[in-house]
Each structure stands twice: as structure tokens, then as C-alpha cells.
Amino acid sequence: MTDRRYTDDEMAEIFRRATDSTHQAETHAAARPGMSLAELQEIGAEAGIPAEQVAMAARSLDQPHAIGPATRRMLGLPIAVADDAQLDRTLSDAEWDQLVVMARDTFAARGKLRQDGKFRQWTNGNLQVLLEPGTHGDRLRLRTVNGYARQMILMGGGAMGIAAAVSLTPILTGNAAALANLDGMAILGLIGVAMFARGVYGLRRWGERRAKQFRELIERARGSEIP
Prior knowledge:
Elements: H1 8-18, H2 21-30, H3 37-46, H4 51-62, E1 70-74, E2 77-86, H5 93-107, E3 112-116, E4 119-124, E5 127-134, E6 137-145, H6 147-173, H7 182-203, H8 206-222
Antiparallel strand pairs: 1-2, 2-6, 3-4, 4-5, 5-6
């Protein structure tokens, strides 16, 4: 890494990961493309950023893991959100406790704590905050699935499908006796539409909100201290 030269975009990302946005602007303004890690550390030192903090940010930039935000969709809408991050340091017990407090405040949920050796987790239903040993420190993994919305969409779609199938059968076959069931199928269809709409509405901004909350937790955990 000592021989590597960083581009303008890479230097901006290093300083973003190493400190807050104010120092990022100051340090990036003083940097020029093609600078080495040692030169970036010198610029960071002038802005009060520890050299090791700049080095950790640079290491995280070079790590090739498939880490970052991910979204699984249903009917084009986000049904599951995930985000992974290599922290490049090991959280202390006190920092993990504070991260759990942040998660509880963010999601307004008490959740459950569990620890198996170096593996720690805070979960609340489908919502998971997992801390695991990584290559260069801890790895933070966040996962959630909107199970309620998924259930509403599947049940609503099923009800609409049954209502349509049962209603079309007597019409296509000319079975007059079966026409008496049309009123009940119409009600079932309306219930299905309501359930389906409720599920879709619940997903409209849910994914974006969860992704933002996950990223905020990760950025706080990446700091030298969790406030």
C-alpha cells in the first residue's frame, strides 16, 4: 500500500471514511491526485486526523469483499434490505453496548441480545444486527425483511386469484346454479385487493428508510469512538 497512488475520487472517499464531512472538505482541498498514503497522512495530521485513522480508511478502500448495501425486491418494490461493512477495528464491549442502544433507539424496539464467543447479535423479529470477526477487525452485518408486507401481498394476490377463478368458472360454463356464489367471490376479491394494496403501500418508502438507517449505524460504528 505504501507505493500506491490515489486518484482524486479515492482520496475523497478515504477522508470521508476517516473523519467527518467538515474535515473531509478541508483535507480534500489540500490534496492532489496521485498522492501516496504517507502524503495523505501528512495532510490529515494538519487537520487533526490521526495517521492510523487515515491508514484504516485506505485499507478499507482496497479490500475486495462483496460488502455494501443490497436490496431484494418483490414486484419491483424493496422487500428485504441488507448492508455489510468491514470496520477495520474490533469494537470494545462498551462500544457494542452503545451500538445496541443506538439500534434500539433507531428502530424503536427492545430486541434480544446473544453472544457466542466473538459472535454477537441483536435481533428483533426479522431485523438483525450481527457483529462478527473479520479479516482486519470486526464485520458488521445488518439484515431485515418486511415480512408483514410480503404476507399481505401474497395473501391478497391469492384471494384475488381464487375469487377470479371461481367467478369465471360459472360464466364460462354457463352453470346458472353457481352464479349464486358471485356475490361472495366479489367480497373475497375486494378483501384481496385491500390486502394487496396494504402490502404494497407498506413497501413504498420502507426500503429507502431502512437502508439509510443501516448506513447511519455503520458510519457511527466506523468512528474511533461511538458517541
